[in-house]
Amino acid sequence: MSEKKKNKTFKYWVGRIHLWLGLTSGLFVCFLGITGCILAFEREIENVTQPYRNLEVQKKALLPPTQLKAIADKALPNKHAHSINYQPGKSAQVVYYNFEPEYYYIVFVNQYTGEVLKVKNMNDDFFRIVIMGHYYLWLPPNIGQPILTSATLIFVILLISGLILWWPKNKAASKQRFTVKWNAKWRRVNYDFHNVLGFYITWIIIFIALSGMVMGFQWFSKSVYFVTSGGKSLTEFSEAFSDTTTNLKLKLNPSAADKIWESYLNADPKFQGSLDVHVPENEKASIEVAKNPDPETYWKSDYRYFDQHTLKEIEVKHAFGKYENTTVADKIYRMNYDIHVGSIAGLPGKIIAFFASLIAASMPITGVLIWIGRNKKKKKVSTTIR
């Protein structure tokens, strides 16, 4: 068999794999692309359409976490507050989140006056609904997530096989592979659109797809960490607890959260990022504080945990601890969500992620049109021969 025939045979089978995998996962890829586009500018849209999120900075003292929590508890009784968030130019957010019974609320409070600005049930929020579809297909997580992550894995294979099929045989052929011939018939334009734009977005969408797989498959997440760390295993996140074995008279000490919060303000009074404070719910819980210098992303957050009885810091070994202690692999692991939504590169990154997702959503459609066109052509030739 000649080398030319071998190459043709190889590309033929790659083409068949590309076709059938595309037909299998096309609807899911289209769905993920469209919902990804909707979520690309979630934060920007919320800031414009939900004025209660924004609050002018005032030259007044901020109300401490426990006071904001007490105010929010009155507005939303019989729920347990998860955290209190502070950010200059934004209203404080008291977050209520629980698995059993399941609920997710945010109470927006003026951190200067204590006025409740909005009690929002996040399960009724438009973007929250879209997120649940994008992550779980509105099914139970243990069902929906594997389906969508498997479709994402297939899409990665499609990207690789698409590159193989796109790759030109020679320099002359390569001239036609980088541009869309807009003045041609619609079938040729559709063909070019699928191949040319598919080539360009591959180098972007591959990172979005792989980061989605990190969130969806534990084995893939651990494998990525193993590779990026040079052979070390990922330390799973575990909750830090206060010491309940000391001789101190133990009791729930929520005011300790105010002391920790105040120490943060005194240490950096000009801090312009976000500060999350987790008030302990029971005697065993610790106080978690997340200090994020860039609220547009998450990976730079400095997570610290304190014993609510002694105020001593609790050291942790997982990736979500002190930022200064994170390794390169930890940083990559932390960056995963920001890479997925494009915010790792700021607003330009979100714009790129938006158009990449939009084009990705069109790939199954243009691919099906190519397949239909080829089938019609084959039938026409077969009829003519007869």
Folded structure, characterized:
This protein is α+β, with helices and mostly antiparallel strands and 386 residues long. Helices cover 54% and strands 11% of the residues. The chain has eleven helices and eight strands. The protein has helices at 3-40, 42-49, 65-75, 126-136, 141-166, 171-174, 186-216, 218-228, 255-267, 328-341, 346-385; strands spanning 81-86, 92-98, 103-109, 116-121, 274-278, 287-292, 302-306, 313-314. Strands 4-3-2-1-5-6-7-8 form an eight-stranded antiparallel beta sheet, with helices on one face. Strand 2 (92-98) and strand 3 (103-109) form a beta hairpin. The protein is elongated and about 75 Å long. The two termini are 32 Å apart.
Task: Write a concise synopsis of the structure shown.
The protein is 54% helix and 11% strand. It has 386 residues and is of the alpha+beta class.
Residue share in β-strands: 5-15%
The overall average pLDDT, rounded, is: 90
As residue ranges, the low-confidence spans are: none
The structural class is: alpha+beta
Strand numbers in spatial order across the main sheet: 4-3-2-1-5-6-7-8
The number of helical runs is 11
What helical percentage do the residues reach?
40-55%
Order of helices and strands: HHHEEEEHHHHHHEEEEHH
Q: Over all CA atoms, what is the radius of gyration?
A: 26 Å
Largest sheet, described in full? Answer: 8 strands, antiparallel
Kindly state the number of beta strands.
8
Q: Tell me, what's the shape? A: elongated
Report how far apart the termini are.
32 Å
